[in-house]
Amino acid sequence: MHFLLGLPLFFCMCSCFHGQGQKKDRTEEVKIEVLHRPENCTKTSRKGDLLNAHYDGYLAKDGTKFYCSRTQNEGHPKWFVLGVGQVIEGLDIAMMDMCPGEKRKVIIPPSFAYGKEGYAEGKIPPDATLIFEIELYAVTKGPRSIETFKEIDMDKDKQLSKAEIDQYLRKDFEKDEKPRDKSYQNAVLEDIFKKNDHNGDGFISPKEYNIYQHDEL
Ligand SMILES: [Ca+2]
Ligand SMILES: [Ca+2]
């Protein structure tokens, strides 16, 4: 479950994907074509949800495939949080309101992708329109869902204390079956407070916790 632990990595990924900082051309738009939508669709993706998906990326101009999640990470689908900049903005938009099992083809203009600069490491030239074929496998509550907050907040005072998070971490580590010593756990705890307790009062408030700005909190 590593909800809290996962965050430093997520932040790192954000900064890798972000950083274009260019002006968006709002005359451009992301085009979404639904290739397959399961009949039984009871739950759709929203901002802050944790998604599990495979996607193939192509350059629109000549169809060159520049990315395929199936050939990475031993073919496991990718996990990421929707709508928070862990992926390019066009994918954050294109994967909203999608149900598990749904397939989409989406066309993403450069201003919602890698812009004028492109992304050399990812073999994306400047000003490239991208096409993605996406298959969504799972939609789950994100790493900072209201449910998790309530689970950690044992005395229900709507503040997360160090003791509460310490206990949550211990349970989380136990599930993992990899023994970790107390100093490691303390370091993680300190890190969580350093990154999240913005007003330094020793508690993580709903506002400090809710970095993905779900409606529920
Ligand atoms: Ca509490
Ligand atoms: Ca605080």
Automatic annotation (TrEMBL):
Keywords on record: Calcium, Endoplasmic reticulum, Glycoprotein, Isomerase, Metal-binding, Repeat, Rotamase, Signal
Single GO MF descriptor: peptidyl-prolyl cis-trans isomerase activity
Catalytic activity line of the entry: [protein]-peptidylproline (omega=180) = [protein]-peptidylproline (omega=0)
Region (Disordered): 195-217
Residue span, EF-hand domain: 140-175, 184-217
Domain PPIase FKBP-type: 48-140
Extent of the signal sequence: 1-16
Enzyme Commission no: 5.2.1.8
Domain of life: Eukaryota
InterPro entries: EF-hand-dom_pair, EF_Hand_1_Ca_BS, EF_hand_dom, PPIase_dom_sf, PPIase_FKBP, PPIase_FKBP_dom
GO cellular component: endoplasmic reticulum
Protein name stated in the entry: peptidylprolyl isomerase
Gene that this sequence comes from: Fkbp7
